[in-house]
Amino acid sequence: MPKLLQAQQALASLVNHLTTAIVLLNARMEIVALNLAAENLFRVSQHQMQLEPISNLLSLDPLLKQQLEHSSTHQQSFTSRDIQIQQANGRRLSVDLSVTSVDEQGSLALEIQPLERVKRLTQEARMTTQQQASSNLVRNLAHEIKNPLGGIRGAAQLLQRELNPSLHEFTDIIISEADRLRDLVDRLVGPQRQTQKQRCNIHQILDKIDQLLRAEAGDRVRLIRDYDPSLPELLIDANQMTQVCLNVGRNALQALMEHQVSGGQISLKTRAVRRFTIGHTCHRLVCCVSISDNGPGINADLKEDIFFPLVTHRAQGTGLGLSIAQSLIQQHQGLIECDSQNGQTCFNIYLPMEKLP
Fold first, then answer.
1. Distance between CA 97 and CA 258 in Å, rounded?
2. Which residues contact 247 (CB under 8 A, 6 or more apart)?
3. Chain-centre distance of CA 281, in angstroms?
4. Residue 298, CB half-sphere, CA atoms under 13 Å: how many?
5. Which end of the chain has less neighbouring CB within 10 Å, N or C?
6. CB-based burial of residue 168 (10 Å sphere; 0-12 exposed, 13-18 middle, 19+ buried)?
């Protein structure tokens, strides 16, 4: 008996560690159990939904309801690919759904794989590959630009010594423009300093961002803080993370002010997310920092490329802030994503809570 109990506990632990959402129903279409992935997906707890009818979790269309009842009655399994399901609260999800008959009493196991997650992982892999190719191109280009810039600046300084002081304003322009281009190239290449990680409170960093943005915005934009006080300190480089959040926050502020958005607001929000995959690693717990605004949104044509250098949707933008932010987040084994539509733009920054090499 102890061995059987141990095996059952091991099976329950295995199901809870699956990244696929599992919902167990009895023959009366009542929820018997949810694994952790299902709790996260539907934002409910097993205690809340215990023996509740499935209709309290999902609004089943007539066809899907009929399929579940048929599967329960005849102990048959089925799979539906790329279908839309709707939660009782109205939230819609695109999923792959597999329904398996569990026993002769009509119990069913619903295996739900959100397609958003698969699409996100595919997009993340594509962005990483493109970012690496873009970074290599920019670094090679930067090297080729900096060499002649140094020669131009040096020649202008020598020329200035020989010219009448009344003509120095022209050589000053050459020198200052060469310096400006050198600084631009350095920013294109990106941050060179290695991360210096130590335990930091992410909310202290966001408080600093809040103060800086308030100083720039005055009373024209409202700043909102929505923090999760349960978050522990993170092992991060505070200076680099400040730069990331400031780059994103300033983009939001400038978009609101350039378009003179009435009632403009920026939200700084933190939450803990369980079982989140970054790259090929599934993290038990990650910190999500969300920086959102109610501005005009990002042009659909640019949305896929905003993290590349020199890509910007603002007239006065340089297209470097988000590229640098992504590079710094990658040094923290994290992820930065953007979701934008008219009237709402949100950047989500995901940082692992456990210590990584």
1. 45
2. 321, 322, 324, 325
3. 15
4. 20
5. C
6. middle
Walk across the sheet containing 335-341 and list its strands. Answer: 222-226, 265-278, 281-293, 344-352, 335-341
Check if the beta carbon of residue 227 is closer than 8 Å to that of residue 288. Answer: no
Instruction: Please choose, from the candidates 291, 298, 290, 302, the residue with its C-alpha nearest in 3D space to the C-alpha of residue 343.
Output: 298
Candidates 3.30.565.10, 3.40.309.10, 3.40.50.300, 2.60.40.10; correct CATH number of 198-352? 3.30.565.10
**Token couple for 121:** 């992982």
Do 103 and 129 meet the contact criterion of CB atoms below 8 Å apart? no
Distance CA 63, CA 115 (A): 21
> 2-114, what's its fold?
Beta-Lactamase (3.30.450)
Residue whose tokens read 């923090």: 227
Chain segment 159-214, per-residue pLDDT in tens = 888 888 888 888 888 888 888 777 767 766 655 556 678 899 999 999 999 999 98
What are the residue ranges of helices labelled H in the chain?
2-17, 36-42, 46-49, 62-74, 115-162, 168-189, 202-217, 238-258, 321-331
- Residues 23 and 102 sit within 8 Å (Cβ to Cβ): no
Identity of residue 198: Q
- Domain ranges for the chain, please list them: 2-114, 119-189, 198-352
Query: Is beta strand 222-226 parallel, antiparallel or unpaired with respect to 265-278?
Result: parallel
Residues contacting residue 100 through CB under 8 Å, at least 6 positions apart: 77, 108, 109, 111
Token duo for residue 14:
């295995």
β-partners of residue 258 are: none
Q: Buried b / exposed e across 201-222, counting CB within 10 Å, b at 16+?
A: ebbebbeebbebbeeebeeebe
pLDDT in tens, 129-140: 666 666 666 666
Question: Which tokens is 304 given?
Answer: 């896929």
Nearest to 217 by CA among 251, 257, 263, 190: 257
Q: Which tokens belong to 112?
A: 């739900």
What sign results for the dihedral spanned by CA atoms 252, 254, 256, 258?
negative
